Amino acid sequence: MKSECPLTKNHIKIALVGQPNVGKSMLINSVSNSHLHVGNFSGVTVEKTEVLFDYKDYNFTVVDLPGTYALADYTIEERVTHNFLLYEEYDIIINVVDSTNLAKNLQLTAELMTLGKKMVIALNMSDEAKKEGIEIDEAYMSELLGVPCIKTSAVTKEGLNQLLDKTIEVFNNNFTLPKLIFSETVEEEIEKIEYYLKKHQPVCPNVYRNVAINILRNDKKTFKKLHDEPIWTELLPILIESSKHIELHHDTDDIKEAFAEEYASFIRGVVAETVKVSDEDLTKQTLTDKIDKVLIHPVFGIPIFLFFMWGLFQLTFELGAIPMDYIDSFFVWLGDVVGNTIANDNIRKMVVDGVIAGVGAVVLFVPNIIILFIGIALLESTGYMSRVAFLLDGFFHKFGLHGQSFIPLVTGFGCSIPAYMSARILKNDRDRLLTLFIIGFMSCGARLPVYVLFAGAFFDESMAGNVLFAIYVSGAVIGLIAAKILKLTAFKGVDEPFVMEMPKYRLPSLKLIWHTVVTKTLMYLKKAGTFIAAASMLVWFLSEYPKNQDIENKYATLIENAKTKDEATRLEIQQKKEELSNSYIGQIGQVIEPLFTPLGFDWKMDVALVSGLAAKEVVVSTLGVLYSTGDTTDGEDKSLQNAIKKHIPFASAIAFIVVVMTYLPCFAATTVFAKEAGSWRYAFYLFVFTSVVAYILAFTAYRIAVSLI
Amino acid sequence: MNLLECKKGDKVVITKIKAKDELKRRLISFGLIKGVDLEILNCSPGKKTVEIKVDKTRLALRKEEASLIEVECEE
Ligand SMILES: Nc1nc2c(ncn2[C@@H]2O[C@H](COP(=O)(O)OP(=O)(O)O)[C@@H](O)[C@H]2O)c(=O)[nH]1
């Protein structure tokens, strides 16, 4: 027995269940001061989260299950929650409901009531209900449902202790059957089956009445369980007849629909008895109605959204650029300081030029990413995100995408890593995969230096801005076309239905946004940082080794004999170049050169592209080294621009940009992609897909450019 | 008539959900059940998506889904 074991005596394991957006995460946050992500977008917690805390003499474990509208198995959330509730160990269910929208929330409650578990209902958002003039008689409701109901507010923290006290009480009492009452016809059939079950006593984990209800409403999991029992052959005909009876009564051929109607009318009854709405003025517009009038206006809705996005990007790049110089000089300083403490020349170079420079390049983008995350968190937590999905679904659907795909795609312009992560908001696996596959076509911030360099080298300064814009737009267009092609081939299938709740507008809570942003930023730093450190080291190693003593010796004497300083520098550069073409990376470049000749690339461009697989910033620095302008990696560096203009024909440059636009995102992003897609197999597909697209497009662009000149 | 044929601002009653299996279950779980009242709140440009209000819940549906919901004008 559980209660006799001193170790487990005071443990209560709670399954926290509720529909999306009822304030589950915030409730658990307020109870335990834990830092979960609270968002106003349906279904923020995809994975279940466990939170531990002590209250009175008890040790609570709360499992925050993903929000679901019903106990179904359609979306990831539903599957996680449903499986947990059926097959995992827990003591008690706390069902969180939104007091301002009881009728809908209690649908799930009704389903939970047949699980045969101890249960407490938290009537959350009671502060909001009060404001809206909704009065709930919690005592009467507890009595009608046979389940204790406690008013709570995660915001004002009211009722939280009562909720825990009640949970302890229910935990210590024996299980009592909730009062779920159906229409007479259905009750009759339930009784018939319950009677039959009682007579034959099959082993069931649940009360017989509940088993009867669940097999009647054709619950697959209960079905499967009973299917192997010897009584099944006898039970089945009775069941079929009962179901027919119920279906006839409800004038439908779908027993689940019949039960949904049964639940709905039971709930309507309960709500009518226990909820009073004072001063309800049906014609009065709510605040949400008023805001929606503007934000999802059929004409102005999309321009307003575009304006917000434009603003977000302005902020991301303008504001984000301010700390960049400081970060940059910090890493230069750090490199010097650390470099001075390392005596060994090779190790120092590896640490300073490899690791610190590489990690620095990633950290450089942290301000941009923070701003982008704040913007996205705001979009999420205010409820605007679902409006945008509503507005854009028509457009995205044409390309086989889902309205909600826009969030990951837009994020992709900042950095692919958070973009891949944010694709989780897409519920359907196929939609999510399709979106993941095209995120890379949205040019991320790290590709900007490459574009700036080439636009500056080949176009007049006044034109460069437009060229940049054209690059971004054509990247997005290529992405959409790629989506369409994938949808027609690899991701063929029926279209995902678009049915989505549009939550009320809410003021975002600063504390919660802060938490979200901090967690996500740390995740970015950790994931990209550790990875980039390793990748930079590798690239550095490949470009430094093998050491060729002959070259070193040859240049050592040459430089020593140099007459002027200029000549010495020139020779040093020459040496670097020769060393590079002898290094592993140079060898790789020469091996793959034939492959890229049709695109008009020389081996240096090949190497730059290959090194760009580690991180896109590396493309510029590699070009810088290979085209012998010393080690300046600045995209605006005039000498590198001139060198490129001199050495690279215009058509090749165009093809090069096309490849940078379309080929595989950096390695760190690819790792995240594999994780989000669920398998490295997909990363391989992504590599093949993007390479093929890049090659074909670059070849076409090159041919067109050659024939035009 | 079906939901798609309604105008913004119409208040109607659901008479039948013509969707199949999964989708039907999904619509039901959002509270779209025979006999329930709903109001058409908004349509996106070109009526690609429709926003409706069921009780206190706002829902967005794509036109394909909306056309599967049979409704009747409230008297
Ligand atoms: N007024 C009010 N707002 C709440 C309450 N609980 C949560 N919220 C807000 O409701 C939104 C959704 O909350 P969240 O915890 O993400 O819901 P979940 O999806 O169930 O986890 C957030 O914007 C919260 O700030 C409450 O008791 N009162």
Can you walk me through this structure?
The complex is a heterodimer of chains A (709) and B (75). With 709 residues, chain A is an alpha/beta fold. Among the domains of chain A are: 10-172, P-loop containing nucleotide triphosphate hydrolases (Rossmann fold, 3-Layer(aba) Sandwich); 184-281, Helix Hairpins, CATH 1.10.287. Chain A has 31 helices and nine strands. Chain A has helices spanning 24-32, 76-87, 102-112, 126-131, 138-145, 160-172, 184-200, 208-216, 220-227, 232-250, 255-274, 287-295, 301-341, 345-363, 366-382, 384-398, 406-412, 416-422, 429-439, 448-458, 461-488, 510-544, 549-561, 565-582, 584-596, 603-611, 617-626, 638-647, 650-662, 667-677, 680-708, and strands at residues 11-18, 49-55, 58-64, 92-98, 118-124, 134-136, 149-151, 275-277, 499-501. Chain A has a six-stranded mixed beta sheet with strand order 2-3-1-4-5-7, with helices on both faces. In chain A, strand 4 (92-98), helix 3 and strand 5 form a beta-alpha-beta unit. In chain A, helix 20 crosses helix 21 (461-488) and helix 26 (603-611) runs antiparallel to helix 27 (617-626). By secondary structure, chain B is an alpha+beta fold. Chain B has one domain (3-73): Roll (SH3 type barrels). Helix content of chain B is 17%, strand content 41%. Chain B contains two helices and five strands. Chain B has helices at 21-29, 63-66; strands spanning 11-17, 37-43, 49-54, 57-62, 69-73. In chain B, strands 4-3-2-1-5 form a five-stranded antiparallel beta sheet. In chain B, a hairpin with a 2-residue loop joins strand 3 (49-54) and strand 4 (57-62). The longest helix of chain B is centred in the middle third of the chain and has 9 residues, at 21-29. The radius of gyration of chain B is 11 Å and the shape is globular. The two termini of chain B are 15 Å apart. The mean pLDDT of chain B is 87. Chain A binds chain B through residues 69-70, 72, 74, 100-101, 103-104, 107-108, 252, 254, 256-257, 260-261, 264, 288-289, 292, 296, 298-299, 301-302, 386, 389-391, 393-395, 397, 403, 495, 497-503, and chain B through 17, 22-31, 33-36, 41-46, 48-49, 51, 54-62, 64-65. Strand 9 of chain A pairs antiparallel with strand 4 (57-62) of chain B, so a sheet runs across the interface. The structure holds guanosine-5'-diphosphate. The site of guanosine-5'-diphosphate (GDP) has 23 residues of chain A, from helix 1 and helix 4. Guanosine-5'-diphosphate (GDP) binds next to helix 1 and helix 4 of chain A.
